[in-house]
Amino acid sequence: MSNIFLPGLGEQIEFLFPNLSSASKILVLGSESSEIAERLKKHFNAEVEIVVEDYESLINTNLQLSENKSIKAKLMEFDHLDYKDDQFDLIYSQGSISLLKRNKIIKEIKRVLIPNGHLYVGEIVKLQQNVPQFVEDIFEQSFILPLFIDDLHKYYEERNFEIIAEKNLTYTLKRFYSETLNKIKEKEKELTDKEKSYYKKLINKINHEAKSFLRSGADKHIGFYSLLLKKK
């Protein structure tokens, strides 16, 4: 059973393997990506690095990789990657590009990808051009800038990516948010009163987002798509 706890769950990486024959140097963007990195390394026999944007995620990732010292985790801003040009032949992102600074992130990804290198991205998308205010509030609170589904291909094609394969993984979101609520309940039992007070705002935000999706109809407006792209 997969322990990938991100939108798209384990379905995103499973779709990659039959659609990409090889990769030798891989960059994974985002927290909660240690299992992804380990599976990519094993499948492709590749050199793999993970980049996260905050110190707590770096600590957690290193703990998760404590038995796999060959995978490096580093702290960087996704829109300011500390790598030279043309370094990676595959960059993997599962929900970590759909941000307010997405244009800068894509520019950096293109810079560090080799010519004809691949970007494999999971994108939170809007299923309608105009969504209700409570859905916009979810996006705003999570600093997400999702594309409208009909604009997804155009966005990447305009940035000189060729679309190799894609999969609609919207069906995974209900399970992801259900598991989110269960995980929060279990985690809260382990927290001290002081820790509960410290994490109260974050816990409430995640609870609200999950319940909005599951009970308020946000599932009619929010989708998740994975695209395998090739840099032209």
List the helices and strands and how they pair.
Elements: H1 11-16, E1 25-29, H2 34-44, E2 47-52, H3 55-64, E3 72-75, E4 88-94, H4 102-112, E5 113-126, H5 133-141, E6 147-148, H6 152-157, E7 161-168, H7 173-190, H8 193-215, E8 222-231
Parallel strand pairs: 1-2, 1-4, 2-3, 4-5, 5-6
Antiparallel strand pairs: 5-8, 7-8
Fold and architecture overview:
The longest helix is centred in the C-terminal third of the chain and has 23 residues, at 193-215. The chain is built from eight helices and eight strands. The radius of gyration is 17 Å and the shape is globular. The mean pLDDT is 92. α5 (133-141) packs antiparallel against α8 and α7 (173-190) packs antiparallel against α8. It has 232 residues and is of the alpha/beta class. 41% of the residues lie in helices and 24% in strands. It has two domains: 11-170 and 221-231, 3-Layer(aba) Sandwich (Rossmann fold); 174-215, no CATH class. It has helices at residues 11-16, 34-44, 55-64, 102-112, 133-141, 152-157, 173-190, 193-215, and strands spanning 25-29, 47-52, 72-75, 88-94, 113-126, 147-148, 161-168, 222-231.
